[in-house]
Amino acid sequence: MIISDITLGVFPFQPWNPTWYLIYILLKILLKKTPTKETRSIVILGTKGAGKTSLWNALRNIKEATSATYQEKVSQFDLKFRDKTISVEETYDVGGGDSLLSVYESLIKDNTYIYYLFNVNRQENKEDVKSIDKQIETISEISRHRMGVGLKFIGTHCDECEKDKSILYKEILRNLGIQKKHLHILNLQDPKDVEIIINEIVNNITDYA
Ligand SMILES: Nc1nc2c(ncn2[C@@H]2O[C@H](COP(=O)(O)OP(=O)(O)O)[C@@H](O)[C@H]2O)c(=O)[nH]1
Ligand SMILES: [Mg+2]
């Protein structure tokens, strides 16, 4: 019975592989619609070039072109939406390379909310699929030893995709075997799209300054 539930997940999951089966179950537990009032820190992870640094910059109102990131400190900053302001705890903006997987251990703490970014145009790209596999496996494993970790996917670069957004949603939801509430499809270069994330963070987190 459970098998039929997971056969939907064809990308990046391989449900016939027992390791993936476990990871898939763990991931399901991690999926949370939004940060919550218990959330204490925000972490942005994902594949190379997906837009992690762009999103950190947009959240901080930094208008700079990005270059490949290895590991850069994101100092504490205030995030404001309408009349509410919250404080975002210091963290690191890490690159999408395999060598940085070990850093996840210190980034993902109790009550961390993870935005997991991938480029919607590279769903079939072998390198990206491999790194999503590895990163999700690492995140799931670390989160087993943490309390209150939440995760949601953000498919980026949707402006570069010819497909209609509703079709893209359907395709990705089917491939990942997740529900719509666990996915945003955004153009990170559009301030309106970034505002969706700012609103989501500010309105669900209690100020933890
Ligand atoms: N068109 C478009 N470009 C994006 C989007 N998100 C990021 N970029 C660009 O993609 C490149 C890589 O982004 P970056 O933030 O450095 O990715 P990172 O490796 O995940 O930190 C940069 O040139 C960004 O300007 C998006 O949603 N749409
Ligand atoms: Mg970067």
C-alpha-based Rg, rounded: 16 Å
Q: Classify the beta-strand content into a percent band.
A: 15-25%
Q: Alpha-carbon distance between the termini?
A: 46 Å
Q: Could you tell me the mean pLDDT?
A: 89
CATH architecture title = 3-Layer(aba) Sandwich
List the helices and strands and how they pair.
Blueprint: H1 2-6, H2 18-30, E1 41-46, H3 52-59, E2 71-74, E3 77-81, E4 84-88, E5 91-94, H4 104-107, E6 112-119, H5 126-143, E7 150-156, H6 165-176, E8 183-185, H7 191-204
Parallel strand pairs: 1-6, 6-7, 7-8
Antiparallel strand pairs: 2-5, 3-4
Helix pairs in contact: 2-5
What does this entry look like structurally?
By secondary structure, the protein is of the alpha/beta class. It has a single domain, classed as P-loop containing nucleotide triphosphate hydrolases (Rossmann fold), CATH 3.40.50.300. It contains seven helices and eight strands. The protein has helices at 2-6, 18-30, 52-59, 104-107, 126-143, 165-176, 191-204, and strands spanning 41-46, 71-74, 77-81, 84-88, 91-94, 112-119, 150-156, 183-185. Strands 1-6-7-8 form a four-stranded parallel β-sheet, sandwiched between helices. Strands 2-5 form a two-stranded antiparallel ribbon. It is globular. The chain starts with a helix and ends in a 5-residue tail after the last helix. The relative contact order is 0.21. It binds guanosine-5'-diphosphate (GDP) and magnesium ion. Magnesium ion binds at residues 52-53, 66, 69, 93, 95. Guanosine-5'-diphosphate (GDP) binds next to helix 3.
